[in-house]
Every structure is written in C-alpha cells, then in structure tokens.
Amino acid sequence: MAETGLVDIHIMGERHRVPDSLTILQAFEHAGYKLVRGVGCRGGFCGACATVYRLPGDYHLKFALACQTRVEPDMQLTMIPFYPANRSSYRLSELKGEAKEVLDLYHEMLRCYGCNTCTKSCPQDIDVLGYVAAIVRGDLAAAADISFDCIMCGLCVSRCPAELVKHNAALLCRRIYGRKLAPKSEHLARRRDEVKAGKFNSDIAVLKKQSKDELKKRYAERDIEPGE
Amino acid sequence: MSYPSNMQDSLNAVVAGRERRMSETFPRATADAKEALLRGFHPDFLADTFAALRIGPNSGDRTPRELALLLEADSTLPKMGTVPPGGQSPFPPTINQSKPDYTCDILIIGGGGAGCSAAIMADNAGAKVMIATKLRLGDANTMMAQGGIQAADKDNDSPAIHYVDVMGGGHFANTPDLVEALVSDAPEAIGWLEDLGAMFDKNADGSMKTIHGGGTSRRRMHTARDYTGAEIMRTLRDEVRSRSDITLLEFSPAVELLTDDKGEVTGAILQNLNLNRYSVVRAKVVIIATGGSGRLHYQGFPTSNHYGATGDGLVLAYRAGAHLAFIDTMQYHPTGAAYPQQILGLLVTEKVRSIGAQLVNSEGNQFIFPLETRDVVASAIIRECSLNKCITTPTAVQAVWLDTPMIEIRRGAGTVKRELPAMVRQFGRHGIDIAKEPMLVYPTLHYQNGGVEIAADCATNVPGLLVAGEASGGVHGRNRLMGNSLLDVVVFGRRAGVAAAKVAKERTGDPQLGLTHVERWRKELAAKGLGSEVKSPLLLPDYTRKSRCPALDH
C-alpha cells in the first residue's frame, strides 16, 4: 500500500490535495492543521478522533476513527471534537450490582426501539444493539462481555434517535461485573493478605543486600515456569 | 494476499518453514551473547545521537539530542512584566499572591494512569485535589498498553521472584527501594483495580488467567484481552469523574512550576489550549504524572506513544532543580508495525509472542528466542536487518516477520480473534488477516526508561514536588519488562496520592508563589552562553507539513 498518488479531499468545505497513503488524521496535518482536539493515541484505542464523512454520490453519512482510516478521493470530512453525552453519577461501592441499578441510572435505555443505527456507526464493529438489549433484559454479564472493546468514542450516541448514552451505560455494566459479578480470585485475596502480614519482607531484604554479582548469578540460575 | 508481490518469495519461505519451526525451540541467549547484541545494535549505544547536558542538575550527563534540546531550553513564559504578542489574556505581570485562579491541596499534572490513581487515593485521604491535563482525562500512554500488568499473586510465585526478574531486566541498575515497592504493592494494586470494577481475564473458578512476558520467570502477566491498559484507564477515569470533589481541568497543560523563595514547589502555571489563557494554581504539593516522551522521536524512530507524550514533566521538574535518572536509556519496543505505512510504529503487543508467534527473518528462519527482554529482541531485529535478512517495505522501512498464524495452529482456530481483538481489528482495516498471514515488524520508540529521580514515596530532591509513573526514573533501571509500566503507574500513582495528602496536611498556611527558579535559570543560560531561542515544554509535536521534522512518518 505504498503511496501511489495524490487525492483531493475536502476538510470542512475546503479542498486539499494529499497523498493517498495517509490516514484522515495525517491528511489534516498534511493540510496544515495542528490538532489539539480530535486527536489522542493515534492508534485506535482512545476514541478522541471520531470523524464523520461522506463520499461523492452516496447519501450515507459514514463514521470512522481518523487515525485508523485512509483517505479516499473526494471525501467530505469534518471532525467531531467532542460529543456531549449524559453521564450519571454513582459510587460503585454503594451499588448492589443489580441490573435494575443500571436502568435506574440510565433509564433512557428502555427507550431503545432497535433501529440498529448504533451498531452501524461503531468503528470497533461492536454489536452495540446487542449489548443494549442485554442491559434491557438485565443480563449485565453479557453487556459487559459484548461491549468490552468499546473505546468510548461516542459515535453510537451521536446517531441514536432515542438519545441513549450507550457507552457510559456499558462502562457501568463492566464495572459492576468486574467488582460484583465476576468470580472472585482466591489466590489474589490470599496474596494480598500475605503481603499485608509482611510474609515476603525478609526475602526481599536479603535480595536488596546482595551484591550485583550475587544477584546476577541468582538471575541466571532462576528456574523458568514453562509456557502453555 | 495483501502483501506486495516482491514480498511473496519471502512470505513463501515463512510458510514453508513453519512446520519445522513449530517444533523448534530457539535457544535463550547467554549473558555474553546478550551483552554483545546490545552493544552492537541497541540504539542506546549510538554515541553520536546523544549529547551531554550543559546546564542544570544533570550537567555532564548524556541524553538523546532531542531531549537535551528541550532540557536546556528557555521557559515559554514571557519575561516578567511583558505582554505576550497576540495573547488574549496576557500572562499576569505580577502574580496576585492573595488571589490565585485556583487553590488546592494537591495539584496533579497529568490525567493518565498515575495521575488518576494518585487523585483517587488523595481524595480518599480527604485532600482537596485538582487534576490539570494537557488533552482529555485519560488521554495517555496508559490507554494504549495492550499486553498486561504483572503481579506475583500465584502460589508458585512471590514478590521476591518478581524482584529478581525486574532487576535482571533492568540490567541490575534499578533502584532497589523502588523495585521493592513495585513488586510488594503489585497484588494489592490488582485487587484495588478489581474493586474499582476492572475486568481481568479469569478462569471459571475466579483464578486469574496469567501469561509470560519477555524476561518473566513466572506466568504473572494479568490481561484484559488486549485492551488491558484501556480497561484500567477507563475504570480509573470513571472513578475520578464520579468524585465531584476532584477538580478537573482538561486541555490545560502546565507550562511552568511555581516556587517560593526557598525553591520549594508551591503550584504551577497552566495554559488553556483552547483559549490561550494562563492561570495560576496554588498547591501545597504538586505531583507530576505527565508520562513519557516518545513523541520527541529520538534518533528519528517512529513511536508507539500517545500524541501528548512530549516529556513536559521532565522539563518542568528539571528547571525547578530536580535531578533526573537514567535519561540515557530509552526503550525501543521490538515489534512496532512496519507495514502498512498507515500504522507504522504502532505497537504490536508482546502478547503476540507470549502466546506463540515467532520472529522470523526474510529467509524464513528464527533468529532470537521470542521472549528475551525487549532490548535484546529489538537489538536482534536490528542486527538481522543490518545483515540484510529483512524485508524492505514500499516506504523504505526495514522489517522482519512475526509469524502470527502459528498461534492458531498451536492453540486452535479462533485464538487470535479471542486473544488479540485489537490487533485483528487494526491489521484487518488494512486488509491483513493476522490469523492467516504474518505481520511485518521493526522496533518502535516505546518507553522512557528514566525520568525524575524519586524515592519510594515518590518524593524528589525538590520539596513539594512528587513524581509518579513514566515521568519518574529508577524503578525499571536501564530496561523495563512488559507489564511493569501499567503496574508502575498504579503502584506509584497510589503511593504519590497517599504521600502527597500527608505532606499537604503538614504544610500549613498559604505557600508563596513565585518564579525565582525561572529567573535563576535564565541567568544561568546567559552565563553559559546558551541561547534562549528554543522554548520548552513542547506540549504538542508539530506534524503539520511545514514542521521542522517533516520526514517523520508517525
């Protein structure tokens, strides 16, 4: 996918000619924009660069992460620097972990009428409608699992005719699942107690006193747990 | 096939050799072989890309030229009493001692993993906390960490065994007190994150699924698919937002610390990037949690780092008199994406090798044990390219293969999609199915091993200034193991929050606000004949077409 030529794109109505190998984000910079908003990790993990665009002859509005999408000829581009979204306030420690609590905090989830626009707009290909349905039927474990790859870009919210704030509701489901519903790790609980009781202090004190050569020898001779 | 035709012969060699390699174990390198690899090929040993600092607490120490330029630079603030050209809200000619724009107990600069962990713990301790962050809350390298987080919580493991691994990985140069803190707090950090609602990968009985990382002697890497950092960051961020007592200022980086006449840190000056306005914050303690500096593109390398990773915290702390440690060593992650160009430098998580993929040269042969420490693997890849046993991409990047289809053969169909959804998605967007085709990789600038020297409670040599996370130096020595940076930000973020709350309680009265350290710095610059044209912190890299480093493919 080497650079093979130049393409015209339109950034907020203004025409720019850019190499066709660039991502949308790189094309903005090539055109001379120094970005402050609408840019983050540049690797598809943070959701800062949510973008909408159109292609000629196509009435559809298209959605993408600017850092992950290559420019196309005559793309009509704009950026969504920040999409306001309701976020309910809660303290996880005060929640019981019941499905009803999610609907109390995000009661608008019940307004979903299943148009699936959210799923179509998700740059992560998440089954957004699927997890909304899971929330509505009270299956928080499924909602947490299906929504796991969400990067909270908010594109699903921007397009929802019922004005649901799905990504924030999904985050609440995942936090409830992580704290309350996931099976507890006994070895972790045991080790936390052991560390608090100072069980390993003397071992580490011995290591800290060792010379560099002694430590090197120990490192070279350590036994290594087999892989899987 | 999605690779150009001139790569097909090599690709065929990779496929042809796969069956043989499935049963082949490449031997681990001996200590001497590792040393020779590092000295011969690691970028830290390219002497002419380094410069010795001429001013400040680390005078005489060497560091990459790009960092030296910023550490020796002048403040971005106009000279006292002047008005910046075109500024809507000129920097106040005098700081109003009785009326700073904000007052808090603890100012945390940076809103990534370390900053948010510190904020939560300090808030728990009853301190009045403010977070100022350059971009959005959570926009940080933490968000991008895929591989995992280490903690010795299995029965066959212990903090002491973890300690030995960390010291060995860091070439035994690490600060022992910091390593002790890291490994001892690790199980508690994992438990704390889980109590906040982070979803780690678990077995049905609740036991943690754990894997190896480069340089680990036990399988102690905890994962959240390959979104481990994102899962931790979005959990911490949501918790911070749930606490209405924490004041949050986004798009407001610190451009200078404030000090009193004894040189103690008493706050900071922030710049609102949207409005180009300055504001003055008075704080009893300041925690720098600004992260790394990969966006300075040391030695012209591409980087896996976040857009905001420009080393601001190092610059601010250095000008205020803080001593830096290990600033002559950077981590080049062995596997950055080398093709296609759109994802150049993007991280290919070490988890790919942890779960069974091998590194293979253009002839289809293994050349390094896949789970050596990162510096050794990176050096081996660079060596292979220097021997011309590599692929050259259409944008002239050299690369070797990372044979991901092996994972599916070893662990069953569907493993790649289940274990590496982010990787599948990133390559899939460019037409490469990594379950069926290998990737092309080359080292990418990944981590700032060094930073501001800290004690185990995150204190620096400057009173009132604490540092946590990637901006600090010492815990990882000269090389960091996978899974210890997420651990670092949580462990030391938490420690910084606790320690800062304690210091804030002890500091009574309103600290005096001043910029005497900047005036002193300027006199010293002039005395040493150093110019004041270069200003720092940089805040954001300049990637516009007319930038001063247009050749960088980022």
| Terminal-residue CA separation of chain A | 36 Å
Strand content of chain A: 5-15%
Query: What is the global morphology of chain B?
Result: globular
Which secondary-structure class do the elements of chain A indicate?
alpha+beta
Q: Structural class of the secondary elements of chain B?
A: alpha/beta
Q: Beta-strand level of the residues of chain B, as a percent range?
A: 15-25%
Largest sheet of chain B, described in full?
7 strands, mixed
Low-confidence stretches of chain A: none
Summarize the biggest pleated sheet of chain A: 5 strands, mixed
Average pLDDT level of chain B: 93
Helix content of chain B: 25-40%
Task: Produce the secondary structure layout.
The complex is a heterodimer of chains A (228) and B (554).
Chain A: E1 6-11, E2 14-19, H1 24-30, E3 50-54, E4 62-65, E5 75-79, H2 99-105, H3 117-121, H4 128-137, H5 140-146, H6 155-159, H7 166-181, H8 186-196, H9 201-209, H10 212-221
Parallel strand pairs in A: 1-5
Antiparallel strand pairs in A: 1-2, 3-4, 3-5
Helix pairs in contact in A: 4-5, 4-7, 5-7
Chain B: H1 8-16, H2 18-22, H3 31-41, E1 50-52, E2 62-64, H4 65-71, E3 74-75, E4 102-109, H5 113-124, E5 129-132, H6 141-144, E6 149-150, H7 159-169, H8 176-195, E7 210-211, E8 221-222, H9 228-242, E9 247-249, E10 254-259, E11 265-272, E12 277-288, H10 312-319, E13 324-325, E14 330-337, H11 351-354, E15 358-360, H12 374-386, E16 391-392, E17 398-403, H13 405-411, H14 415-419, H15 421-428, E18 439-448, E19 451-453, E20 465-467, E21 472-473, H16 484-506, H17 516-527, E22 535-536
Parallel strand pairs in B: 3-22, 4-5, 4-12, 5-9, 12-20, 19-21
Antiparallel strand pairs in B: 1-2, 6-8, 7-8, 10-11, 11-12, 13-19, 14-18, 15-17, 16-17, 17-18
GO molecular function, one term (chain A): 2 iron, 2 sulfur cluster binding
Protein name (chain A): 4Fe-4S dicluster domain-containing protein
Domain 4Fe-4S ferredoxin-type (chain A): 103-132, 140-170
